[in-house]
Amino acid sequence: MSLPSQQALSRTVVAIDGPSGSGKSSVSRGVAARLGLRYLDTGAQYRAMTYWMLQNKVDLGDPAAIAADAEAPAIVSGTDPAAPAISVDGHDVAVAIREADVTGAVSAVAAVPEVRARLIALQREIIGIGGIVVEGRDIASVVAPRADAKVFLTASEDARAARRNSENGGGAGTVAATRDALTRRDSIDNRTNALEATPGAVVVDATELTLEQVIEKVADIVIHAAQGPAPDAASQGVGLTR
Fold it and tell me: CATH code for 42-130?
């Protein structure tokens, strides 16, 4: 398949949504690197906001307190897929935002409307005229509903738990605990229909696929979108959710 012109790709917006552990980050970065696009991890921004709230002793049980400080932190996201970076008030927090305390609190922070409004505005500013792969929970439905390519990436609970457990450096004995944590996160996220594919999105089930196979499928979807009408699932041989 011939690639579309770089000019066409430079205007393309790719929205990749899906549940935790489905491989969104690895796939999004891989697709962006392959096609010469920028990359944005919106989940990292919510984590950065949560990190700031924790560092500043904001009461995370009080949505009004979170809302009051939603505009305070200066959050800067890098868009290089080879080395994505994120800082808060000028400090690199790429490692700190993955710690357990942030992971345990991010859903509560992300649920506050003022936080969402602040970060969605930031995300749209970064997206700009395009040339970017954006991953998260509500990219195709809220952040960039007119995205050229929309992908909903999913996998079975067992596959997602094993993948996330491996990312966290856990052993075989901790997979069940990881699955329970993902289930709780899914329950919270699904209150806003974040775990449902947006109409027009191509659903990619990564359960039985390698990372490289998923990257190839999604890259093909993006290439088709940049060339013209988006493909349907059948034409791409994409597995639907089970």
Answer: 3.40.50.300
Distance between CA 1 and CA 159 in Å, rounded? 30
Q: What is the C-alpha separation between 93 and 190, in angstroms, rounded?
A: 27
Q: What is the DSSP string of 52-118?
A: HHHHTT--TT-HHHHHHTTTSS-EEE---TTS--EEETTEE-TTGGGSHHHHHHHHHHHTSHHHHHH
Domain boundaries, the chain: 7-37+132-230, 42-130
Question: Is residue 189 classed as helix, strand or coil in its secondary structure?
Answer: helix
Tell me the per-residue pLDDT of 108-132, one tens digit each, with 9 for 90 and over.
999 999 999 999 999 999 999 999 9
- pLDDT of residue 221 exceeding 60: yes
Instruction: Please indicate, yes or no, whether the overall pTM of this predicted structure exceeds 0.90.
Output: no
Q: Compute CA 114 distance to the chain's CA centroid, rounded to the nearest angstrom.
A: 20
pLDDT at 233: 38
